[in-house]
Design goal:
four-stranded mixed sheet, binds FE2/S2 (inorganic) cluster, 41% helix, Glutaredoxin, alpha+beta
């Protein structure tokens, strides 16, 4: 899974850093747990302004998860999307 977090100034002011911190925390804890399926990977990428904030107001922070763009993203929303995908791999069936 690839998550691109915009770290342009607008998105940073609106909380992109807390989204990155939570994603990195998840990567360092849950995904390193014994029994975690190595088939699930989490790539976190930071991007300079993705241009969305130039088109419209109040869209920051902007995050792209596996190609799907989330505008005005919250930490909770992004973590929910990532965890839903991760649990498909991590939880025993
Ligand atoms: S700063 Fe994030 S879209 Fe412009």
């Amino acid at each position: 899974m690839k998550v691109v977090v915009c770290v342009g100034s607008n998105c940073t002011m609106m909380g992109a850093d807390s989204i990155i911190a939570s994603l990195e925390n998840l990567k360092d804890t849950l995904l390193q747990k014994e029994g975690a399926n190595p088939a699930f990977t989490l790539e976190i990428e930071m991007a300079r302004c993705l241009g969305e904030c130039k088109k419209k107001n109040a869209v920051s922070p902007v995050v792209i998860v596996d190609g799907e763009m989330y505008r005005n993203a919250s930490r909770e929303q992004i973590m929910s999307v990532v965890l839903d995908a991760a649990y498909e791999y991590i939880l025993p069936k």
